[in-house]
Amino acid sequence: MPHRLSNSQIKRNAKLQKQNVEKEEYTGKLTYKLGETLLDEDNAVTLECPKLLYEKTGYLEPISRDNLLKFHPEVVLYCPQIPQNTGTIARLCAAFSCTLHLIEPMGFHITEKALRRAGLDYWEHVNVYVHKNFEDFLKTRPNRRLLFIETGGNATPIDFEYHPGDLLIFGAETFGIPIEIMDKEIQNKNGHKITIPMFNRGVRSLNLANTVSIALYVAIAKLRQ
Predict the structure, then answer these.
(1) Is 103 labeled as ligand-binding?
(2) Which of 45, 74, 105, 196 is least enclosed by beta carbons within 10 angstroms?
(3) What homologous superfamily does CATH list for 28-223?
């Protein structure tokens, strides 16, 4: 007859298992800057496509990463709600040498473990800025085009013509981007709405991290044409 564990033994074993899992999970050191620090930095973009060193392993090594950061689009997450999505997007921005902006209020704390875990140990390779609100963010990026990736746009990512340093803006998982923000910038001729077409009406929306992956990759590919 198998030996039955007591409730206290079961709880103790569960606690030990949890501790062992936490030890194995790597949560890289997340470093970020406040958005206001950008006010003291150069907002210029690199107009000429930076040269890359191609490797057979699949890496594209920039001769100057600073020039690549000023040429590639920048990713803006408006009030993100799910830390795992934001961590995954940070990892994407690290791989593609793109700056990441996070607009408060967010649905999680910037130091939350789930966020750090999703970004693995790549945090040192991505520039992350946290802004108090959308208005403060706009002050740090004057004269940049705002590309709202939302439903209801007339252009698709493939059809759109991108400029170096464009700002790709994505809304919160639960409520998107406020209409008044988009309408104001579009009326000012500074904003554009881009929609990723889907082929099944039964699906209301894509996952945020997937949406960023699609839009960002297409934008970079078209910039390099």
Answers:
(1) no
(2) 105
(3) SPOUT methyltransferase, trefoil knot domain (3.40.1280.10)
